Each structure stands twice: as C-alpha cells, then as structure tokens.
Amino acid sequence: MAIDRTRRPSDPRQAAEAAFRAVTTRKAPEEAAPAPPRAPLIPGTRETVSLRIDRAVLEHYQKDGPGWQDRINAALKAAAGL
User: Fold this and answer.
1) For the segment 34-50, what is each residue's pLDDT rounded down to a tens digit?
2) Where is the composition biased (Basic and acidic residues) (predicted)?
3) Burial of 68 (0-12, 13-18, 19+ CB in 10 A)
C-alpha cells in the first residue's frame, strides 16, 4: 500500500528540522554597548532591599527603638569605608 502524500504536503520531520535550522543558523543581532549604571533620580535616596541577617544582630539594632534601620545603614557604610 502506497502512502498518500496528497493530504500532507510536507514531512513533519523535515519541517521540524527546517524550522530548527532556521532558528539556530540566524546571526545574532548587533548588540549595543551596555548602558552605564543609572544614578538615583534623587541624590541621597535609599533603595528597598531584602537582607538576611542574624536574629542577634537585628535585636542589637532594634533594642534602642526607632531608627534601627538608619543605625544598620551607618554601620554598613562604616564597614565599607564609605
């Protein structure tokens, strides 16, 4: 019994291989030079981050009440030499 190819115009395997070749043989677009890091829009602003620190360190800075985040920031700046 002969295979009737009139219903399916192309072989699925050949179509898949052609699609794969078309994707993998394309040249990468020209990449622009990376943009320099952006400065904060407002000088002196702070950025919200998530930081994992030991419970003892957190308690040490929180024991004096409000302003503990500023105290941690000051300690980190001093440690970094800023």
Assistant:
1) 777 776 677 777 888 88
2) 1-11
3) middle
